[in-house]
Amino acid sequence: MFAFIWNLLKKTTIWTVVIIIGLIILNGAFGTIGAGQRGILLRFGAVTSTVYNEGLYFKIPLIEEVKKIDVKVQKEQTEATAASKDLQAVHAVVALNFHILPKEAGKIYQEIGIDYKDKLIDPAIQESIKASTAKFTAEELIGKREIVRAEMKKLLTDKLSVWGINVDDVNIVNFNFSESFNTAIESKVTAEQDALASKNKLERIKFEAEQRIVEAKGKAEAMRVESEALKSNPEVLQLRALEKWNGILPQVTSSNIPFVNINGLGK
Tens-digit pLDDT profile for the chain (267 aa)? Predict the structure, then answer.
């Protein structure tokens, strides 16, 4: 009886082990590829031409393996020290947005590997920064930032497209220069601001002077017109005096200084 039970237990254990091994093998026969990923099928460690899209996939357990690679838009930010056209030291921080073309995922894994960022992306950004900044002076790097960015994007596109990597965008996060250059730029800006303020003040003074000249010419013309009128009609002077008269006759008059010619006004 004991021997029967022992034999039964051995058989049960063997079948349990077989079932467990079968489940492990079966579980290794399929898997899933997530959104924004592609699966590279390896057979005995060698890359095949098969690339799985998103969803469920099947493979031969213990013989085949699937390596996943991201094809979504990714960001890689790199710092580099370079020199401008006028030999100013430039410390740049550049961010690259890129994605792997799905049909080229197998090529990248086979020829570069999963660590393609370290092997390809970062060196490409470094090179584009150095090549771009060398075409512009330090002041142009500040004033023509958009042109510099476009130059970097073009260089990166030319270099990475041959590997099946699409450049979506390039952004210059920061440009830093030496302390002496920053001081020189600050002094130049201050001088330009002072010169502009002086110019504006001079323009204001010139305008005010022109206004005074115009005003003086206007007064002189008015006096000339009035003088001409008095010469042609002397009675206007008497009319002006009458307009200012308060109606009270003077107590003392002189025969040599007539006040108003009443008879003349009557006419």
Answer: 556 555 655 566 775 655 665 555 655 678 889 888 899 989 888 888 888 998 988 888 888 889 999 999 999 999 999 999 988 889 999 999 999 999 899 889 889 988 999 999 999 999 999 999 999 998 899 889 999 999 999 999 999 999 999 999 999 999 888 877 767 666 666 666 666 766 777 777 788 778 888 787 877 777 776 677 666 666 666 666 666 666 665 555 555 555 555 555 444
Angstrom distance (rounded) from CA 234 to CA 257: 16
Q: What are phi and psi of 85, to 5 degrees?
A: -60, -35
Q: Rounded distance, CA 177 to CA 138, Å?
A: 8
Q: CA-CA distance, 81 to 129, in Å (whole number)?
A: 8
Q: Is the pTM of this model over 0.85?
A: no
How many CB atoms are closer than 10 A to CB 33?
A: 18
In a domain, 189, yes or no: no
Print the domain residue range for 49.
2-70
242 in a domain, yes or no?
A: yes
- CA atoms of 187 and 109, how far apart (whole Å): 53
